[in-house]
Amino acid sequence: AKKFGKRIIIVSDTMISDPHARFFDIIPGQLKSIIINPKMTISYDGLSYPAIRSIKKCINIEKNERWEDQVLSILSECSLQFECEFIIASHLPHAKIRKVMNGIVSDHQDRHWIGDSEANSLFEKAESTEADIERLTNIEHTTDSISESNFSLSFSKLMMQSTNLNGQV
Fold this sequence. Notes:
Elements: E1 2-4, E2 7-9, E3 33-37, E4 40-45, H1 48-59, H2 67-82, E5 85-91, E6 95-101, E7 104-105, H3 117-125, H4 130-137, H5 143-161
Helix pairs in contact: 1-2, 3-5
């Protein structure tokens, strides 16, 4: 997830895999970024069922002044108990991104990554140039839209070019 002014872009794959399974069994197509309302999106990495169960709890919390703190508490507990990681992108009241890992809630950052750290390194190396974006889209862009396009395009390139992320594909 990366913040661009008042906007936040979240990129995510959809593969669910278990590196400890006795046989190769990948379940594609599971949403790992879930919009829980117009002000908040939660993404996860790790055990799918506990993560989704915790996110569903967050959806049902009464929206009051402590709502965001309650969401962070639920996700923090899940991350500690089930080794899940979360990114929370919210606009409460301003655009911010937080990461929850090992029971700890990070401070706001302009960019956060969860999951395979090797993939993050590859993603950073795959950063597209302004020329790549202009060439691929053939459209003139503002500086903000170039940065956003760069971020999205880099992730797409990573998914298309890296056939062996985390030894699973």
